[in-house]
């Protein structure tokens, strides 16, 4: 068995979407991707690419930790609250700093 690229790769059920997974999804609402410039686990460029592929919004977090959406940070919390409660996304080039 080869090493998995992600935790779901060896899931025993075939995916219902082709690869790459996040393309051609009909009626997808505006999404919010949160990505950190110095994330040691997920490269920043991966978050930018995901937001672009989904056609959604991007929140760039200047920092070096993984999981910035879980950080106790008022800037990030405000953007996430607006998205989760009011379904509003930040404007272009939205940024926060950890």
Structure explained in plain terms:
It is a single chain. The chain has 98 residues and is α/β, with parallel strands linked by helices. The chain has a domain at 32-97. Helices cover 24% and strands 15% of the residues. The chain has 2 helices and 3 strands. The protein has helices at residues 44-54, 74-86; strands at 32-36, 57-62, 94-97. The chain has a 3-stranded parallel β-sheet with strand order 1-2-3, sandwiched between helices. The longest helix has 13 residues, at 74-86. The protein is globular and about 40 Å long. It starts with 31 loop residues before the first strand and ends with a strand. The model has no long low-confidence stretch (mean pLDDT 85).
User: What number is the mean pLDDT?
Assistant: 85
Helix content: 10-25%
- Strand numbers in spatial order across the main sheet: 1-2-3
From the structure provided, what is the oligomeric state, counting identical versus distinct chains? single chain
Summing up helix and strand content along with how strands pair, one would put the structural category as alpha/beta
What's this model, at a glance?
The protein is α/β, with parallel strands linked by helices and 98 residues long. It has a domain at 32-97. The protein has helices spanning 44-54, 74-86, and strands spanning 32-36, 57-62, 94-97.
Give a quick set of tags describing it.
alpha/beta; globular; three-stranded parallel beta sheet; 98 residues; 24% helix
